[in-house]
Amino acid sequence: MRTRPGGLRRATDAAARARAGIIPIVKFHSLPRAVLPWLLIFGLGAAWTGWRAYADALDRFLQDTSIAQRMLSQKAVQHEAVLATLSALSHPPAPERLYPSLQPAMPQLRGIGQLRDGAWTGSRAEPPGLAAALGRARAAGRPAALALDEARYWLVAPSGWSLLVDARGLVAPADLPPGLRNLDLSIGAAPLRLLDRQPGEVRGIAMEFDKTLGAASQPFRLRSARTLTAADAPWGAWGAWALASALLAAGLHAWRRNRADTRRRQEEARLAALARLGTLGEMTAGLAHELNQPLTAILAHTRAAARLLDDEDERPAVRQALAASAEQARRAAGIISRLRALVKPSGPARRAAVDPDALAASLRFLREADLQARGIRLSWRNASPGARPLGDPVALEQILHNLVQNAADALAGAPGARQIALQGEAQDAAYAFSVSDTGPGIAPDALPRIFDPFYTTRAQGMGLGLTLCETLAGSMDGRLEARNLQGGGACFTLRLPLAGAAP
């Protein structure tokens, strides 16, 4: 008898609190009419949430795989840069002494050696099949990979220098994106498992992505795989949608948007860091590529002057050789200053009205003797006297020097007259420099990729000269184009703003 009055009193108090707004009163008779709409909204929301979760997982999976591919590609390109540097050294150290100094900076390096005049010297024994790999490298004009097993391979350069690389040390698993699960790299007959975070027998939605490394000498196949399991399903979002679909729709949208923005900023920061590393590697190789020609010319002129010093009648020739060496040294200093300006955050590039005739005279002074020795005639024609392009004189001289050098290389072994025509002409609000030759021209399949980094059609080329020229042209608001001539040969055209033209 005492329980009923107490229970009635508690129910009365609850009703009073409900009328006062403290708790809501649930109308149970309205539930049947709300069940069907709620099920429909919940079903649509749950399906949309599940689909979006899968799309995000797939997007993250592709992004993480691309990041891993870039990291491994940069390591592979680093091997090529080391081999290029060793090949350029006139008196390199012995491989046994060189290996201890390189290995701490390159954990993946397991050995180094050189095959010279048929004799092998190195920190490791000569691998079987080295001679065949060297033949492939020289035929392709770039290093060739010689696989030992699923993890180790020798990278053999045309110069005979070789690096033994263990792919297990390319990138530490902790440095790879945390979203990756399984990562395989195909070097030998069997794939190498770089990352193993998910068993192969897991059931769920499988995702796979294949991509080759971005190194011409090491185009190994990278395979990434991940299986989405029940643990990856958006159970929290579904539960929240089931409890309060109307209110949580806006909150879920804001949460997803903030999360996407945060992830995007993180990925942009990661990609920016990787881009800076890639730019540093490219500029380092570009510096070696660009300085090789003026330094070689300085050495040749200096040796010629030394031979002529004993002859009184050859003093003018000595002065000319020393003047050419000084001009080449000035050009090398200008190249270094220009490359520093490209990687240093600063204001816009220095621009001034450049005299085309003076620029062509300097170029002919530097190159004419070498070109005449190779049977090549260099001509200059100014079709618009008085017109001046706007640009950086050092960068402009560097571009034209590279274009003339490429034309001279293309004429090597070409039959008939060997001529390089340099012309300047004002065209509307632009000034165009054109460098054309009578060589075989550019292959149709190579023409669309001629300005791509590390793409080259020359046996000893690095594929950086034209890329750097295009970058320099862009820094001066210019444009560099390439085409084949109808009568044979290739023509490169550099268009720059015209001084005095309306912007």
Structure characterization notes:
This protein has 503 residues and is an alpha+beta fold. The model is unreliable at 1-31 (pLDDT under 50). 49% of the residues lie in helices and 19% in strands. A hairpin with a 4-residue loop joins strand 4 (152-156) and strand 5. Helix 2 (31-88) packs antiparallel against helix 5 (235-243).
Quickly count the helices.
10
Arithmetic mean pLDDT: 80
Q: Globular, elongated, flat, extended or rod-shaped: what is the shape?
A: globular
Unreliable residue stretches: 1-31
Strand-residue proportion: 15-25%
Largest sheet: 5 strands, antiparallel
Query: What pattern of helices and strands is seen along the backbone?
Result: HHHEEHEEEEEEEHHHEHEEHEEHEE
How are the strands of the biggest sheet laid out side by side?
2-1-5-4-3
Main structural class: alpha+beta
Determine the N-to-C terminus distance.
99 Å
Q: Give the % helix.
A: 40-55%
- The count of β-strands is 16
The gyration radius over C-alpha positions equals 33 Å
